[in-house]
Structures are given as C-alpha cells and as structure tokens.
Amino acid sequence: MRYLLMLAGLCVVSATCTADEPAAATSAASATAAPTAAAPITDVSATKADQPSADGKPPARFTTEAKWDTAGYNNDEIVYTILVKSQDSRIIRCTTSLQGSYYENGAKQSVSDRQLSTVFPDQQVQVGNWMGMDQQSGATYAVHCHPL
Predict the structure, then answer these.
(1) Whole-Å CA distances, 116 to 53, 90, 113, 128
(2) What is the DSSP string of 91-104?
(3) DSSP 8-state code for residue 121
(4) I need a labelling partner for 25 at 20 to 30 A (CA). Which of 90, 94, 129, 146 fits?
C-alpha cells in the first residue's frame, strides 16, 4: 500500500511538472530565438515554365519552403531546413542547391551544398538540415525537379 501511495505521488508530481513545461519552453524559445525578419531567405530557382522538357514530358509540379529554426539543448543552435513537396502524380527527382554563411573561430566563411532527393507523388521531403549557419546573413537556395 505504501508503494502505491508513493507511485501515485510521483505521478501527480510528474504530471504537474509536465504541464508547466510547454509554457516555460515557449517563453524560453521566444526569448532566445532570433527574429525571422532579419533572416532573408531567397529562392533563386528558375521560373517553373509550363514548357515540356527535352524528352517531351510536362514539367514536374512542386512547391518549396525554407525556414530557420532553433534546436539543441538550450534552443541556441540555428538550423536551416529546406522542404520540397510534390504536387505531381509522378515520382520526381530534385536537385537542391544552397548558399549561405557560417562563423568558424570568429571568421565568416561561405558554405555551398547540393543535395539530390526523390519525392513520391503528393509527399513532402526534408532535403536537409544545415546547422551553425549565420542567420543574419540569410541564405539562398534553388530547387530544380524533373519527373522520372
């Protein structure tokens, strides 16, 4: 009986602490998160013209989204993520290019990356997470997709 009372007490304490955490986490995240207005994100993908490709297939239909986020134990690590969502009935292959900056030993360095991803119909993929980038300098990305 004594063990049941101790277990019940622990459950109440655990439930009380868990209920308080989201509010604290939200206020901590808003206090440490950098404003998104200072972080320009530029999509430099060529206009998705409705012209068929060289093999006569209609172009792939897709949307992209890029966003800054925070992660880590204290929500103090900047993460840059690019998402690609297929709006096509075919499987598409996408090439994503990224340009941005990061700091290493106090010196600003440039970073470029290129990722290849396969997106199934009506699905969304996360192309990558780039950590440690300089949010104030912003980032530029381009996504080019073609049907398989």
Answers:
(1) 19, 17, 10, 10
(2) -EEEEEEEEEEEEE
(3) T
(4) 129
Distance CA 28, CA 74 (A): 8
**What sign does the CA torsion over 21, 27, 28, 29 have?**
positive
Q: What is the pLDDT of residues 121-140, one digit of tens each?
A: 999 999 888 888 888 888 88
For residue 52, give the amino acid letter.
P
Cβ atoms < 10 Å from Cβ of 33: 15
Distances (CA, A) of 26 to 63, 67, 97: 29, 18, 32
**CB count, 10 Å around CB of 146?**
15
Beta-sheet strands, E only, within the chain: 41-43, 62-71, 77-86, 92-104, 107-119, 124-131, 139-147
Q: Which two tokens stand for residue 139?
A: 């980032």
Cα radius of gyration rounded to whole Å, the chain: 22
